[in-house]
Write a structure and sequence with these properties.
Blueprint (H helix, E strand, L loop, with lengths): L8 E7 L3 H12 L4 E5 L5 H5 L15 E2 L2 E2 L11 H14 L4 E3 L3 E7 L2 E6 L2 E10 L6 E2 L13 E4 L13 E5 L3 H12 L4 E4 L9 E2 L2 E2 H7 L35 H6 L3 E3 L2 E5 L2 E4 L3 H25 L22 E3 H4 L1 E6 L3 E2 L18 E2 L2 E2 L4 E3 L13 H31 L1
Parallel strand pairs: 1-2, 1-8, 2-5, 8-23, 10-19, 11-12, 11-19, 12-15
Antiparallel strand pairs: 3-4, 6-7, 7-8, 9-20, 13-14, 16-17, 17-18, 21-22
């Protein structure tokens, strides 16, 4: 059945039908503000299509607190797998009766006088205000060094990895030790595959410490509420890698040293590719030590909180390495190592080329304060550290959406007063 035509004009257009865009939809509906959500694919598209089969949340289910729709299942301290995450977001959309137009991508966003013009795959419409709810991870990022690998080596990005059976027999090289890279390396390792992992500077976090999930302690400490302006790195924290750990099988630490002791081969950063020969930096020890330093720093923060608040808790202890690298080999021959596949867990690149508005900084990132951009009536939501650490997670979206809904309401009021004044002048 064909979709009904788009309206010629809508007060607020929300671009993106994931949990961030839907959260803004819920808060606008609560204020009686007419709006439309434009989703290029389907609701929860990224969860559905860019996650592997064993994927699950790394934060406990109790942190799923979309506006008026907190997690209601029987495992608040569990970790939803991929398909349940999709179901949760879809159920939220039904709960708020979100006005979503699926399969309607925005190809161009520009300004025409006091209004914004949205050229979409379903036609053109105008809006008084626009919310960019498309996140910042738009295109899989694979370094061009990948072009130098032999053609017979199967290459894929982490967003298209599904399970070990997808890859040819033999060893697998995973490039990148952020959350995705470490979890995919673990997935392959648990399946009995020989894994080589290229490490980087991503930090790690304990799963459980002193009797509770570390996320619970950090929430009590207000870490997820800390405004970006109060973080020591300020806005630079938005570009930092997330801590790696997992919610798989009820949740656990990811300890690359333990994997190494079990046979996983760890390398420093990838420096060069010459056919089947790879060269790595001599920074493996520094990468592992740096991750462990952050891990122990989080433990120390929790220890201090327990002591300051005189909380009864089991004793804690610092992590001590279970494996130390020898002088690492800085080169590797793929053929000799039997590596037939490479998974690039190298993140995503932003693509705002379709947004023809003066809202970006010198690096092409939207400039904003709590999602309010430098251009009146243009807002963004769902970006890492939009306002706090919780902004990029389910737990912080309700607060961000409420704040934007209030700003949008005030902005629409000013727009209407200006329009009325012009008509009566």
């Amino acid at each position: 059945m064909a979709s009904p035509p788009l309206p010629a004009h809508i007060p607020v257009a929300i671009i993106g039908g994931g949990q961030a865009g839907l959260s803004v939809s819920a808060t606008l509906a609560g204020r009686g503000i007419e709006h439309l959500v434009l989703e290029k694919h389907r609701i929860a598209h990224a969860w559905r299509s860019q996650r592997w089969d064993s994927f699950c949340l790394v934060t406990p289910n109790w942190q799923c607190k979309l506006p008026g729709f907190a997690y209601q299942g029987d495992q608040p301290y569990g970790f939803m797998p991929r398909d349940e995450i999709v179901a949760y977001v879809e159920a939220f959309a039904r709960h708020i009766d979100a006005p979503v137009r699926e399969g309607c991508g925005v190809d161009r966003l520009a300004r025409d006088g006091d209004r914004f013009v949205l050229e979409t795959s379903g036609g053109t419409l105008t809006a008084d205000a626009v919310v960019l709810a498309v996140g910042g991870y738009h295109r899989p990022s694979i370094p061009r060094i990948a072009e130098r690998l032999p053609e017979k080596v199967v290459q894929l990005h982490s967003s298209t990895y599904r399970n070990p059976a997808q890859l040819p027999e033999g060893a697998v090289l995973v490039v990148g030790s952020g959350q995705s890279g470490c979890q995919i390396a673990e997935d392959l390792h648990l399946a009995g595959r020989r894994v080589h992992l290229v490490t980087g500077s991503a930090p790690r976090c304990p799963r459980v410490y002193r009797g509770r999930d570390a996320v619970e302690w950090l929430a009590d400490l207000g870490q997820y509420d800390l405004p970006v302006e109060q973080h020591p790195l300020r806005e630079k924290v938005r570009r930092k890698a997330n801590h790696y750990l997992t919610g798989r099988d009820g949740g656990r630490d990811i300890d690359l040293r333990r994997f190494a002791a079990e046979g996983m081969v760890l390398h420093g950063r990838l420096d060069d590719v010459r056919g089947s020969r790879l060269r790595f930096r001599d920074d493996l020890r520094a990468n592992l030590d740096g991750a462990d330093q952050v891990y122990n720093g989080i433990c120390a923060l929790i220890d201090k909180h327990i002591s300051d608040q005189d909380i009864a808790a089991p004793p804690g202890q610092r992590y001590t390495p279970v494996w130390e690298p020898d002088a690492p080999a800085t080169s590797l021959d793929l053929e000799i190592a039997g590596i037939n596949a490479v998974v690039w867990a190298t993140g995503f690149a932003a693509d705002w080329s379709w947004v023809e508005l003066p809202i970006f900084d010198g690096q092409g990132y939207p400039t904003h304060h709590r999602g309010v951009t430098a251009l009146a009536s243009v807002y963004t939501v769902g970006l890492p550290w939009l306002h706090s650490w919780g902004s990029g997670r389910f737990v912080g979206l309700a607060r961000d959406a409420e704040y934007l809904a209030e700003r949008i309401s005030l902005g629409l009021g000013r727009t209407m007063r200006v329009q009325v004044a012009r008509v009566t002048a």
